[in-house]
Amino acid sequence: MDLQSLMPIIIIAVILIAVAILFTFIPIMLWISALAAGVKVGIFQLVGMRLRRVVPSRVINPLIKAHKAGLNVKTNQLESHYLAGGNVDRVVNALIAAHRANIELPFQRGAAIDLAGRDVLEAVQMSVNPKVIETPFISGIAMDGIEVKAKARITVRANIDRLVGGAGEETVIARVGEGVVSTIGSSHSHTEVLENPDSISHNVLNRGLDAGTAFEILSIDIADVDIGKNIGAILQTDQAEADKNIAQAKAEERRAMAVAQEQEMLARVQEMRAKVVEAEADVPLALAEALRSGHLGVMDYMNYKNIDADTDMRGSIGKLTKNNSDDHEQN
Description:
The protein has 331 residues and is an alpha+beta fold. The protein is 67% helix and 11% strand. Strands 1, 2, 3 and 4 form a four-stranded antiparallel β-sheet that branches.
């Protein structure tokens, strides 16, 4: 087979390869779908998307969807949002949902919300269908010292204007908890809270707790109210226990001082007795000196000894009489 006979086959092969490359680089079917949907997209515009590393289907399909929904969205807007790392399909779905619900949501705001990391479609759905946030049990102390526990249900809807930069659910729960504690604390008695639990929701709702948040609070309902501990009685008991411990410590201090003083007095008594013994030891020496010097005669000494013996005898008789009287009283 010569070259001339192979030439038609080669030409057909080249044409097929060119067509395959063309269909691979240029999304012809996507261009046809856009034309069928009434969306004017140039073939060179699709080629430009390929050159800018934009997946054409990620832009054209949402564009067709927006056009069918009656939204005025440009191709350049969708392409720029895709290049910025946003989710084009989610933004277009959110725009369609907002348009159907008569909620004003420009493309720039929806793209900003998406790039901020929030789910713009969920926000639009929450604007249509409010969300209920349930708080845990929040404890507060009434003026009578009784602990009151309350659980609240907060009905909120998304605020599209404050989604970018607005606080989240945690801030709303914290603010409501603060309002509940303040309302319970300003009640004179825990029975007031039990009788009128709606007073908590009214006081909290009137404080404008949704300021600076991404939500709009529609209602605050008290789901459950429970009685806790008697904190006032517990505090009084603790204070009484502390006062008792202080009094016991002071009494122990006084007792220790009294014991120390008693021991000091006993020591002084022993000291004085030692001095008496020392003085008594000097008496015989003085008598001997008086006898030697002639100041005291023998008869004088004998009279002294008689008086001393008589004194000892009287002391013994007195002790014996006292013991007998004590035994008689006991009998």
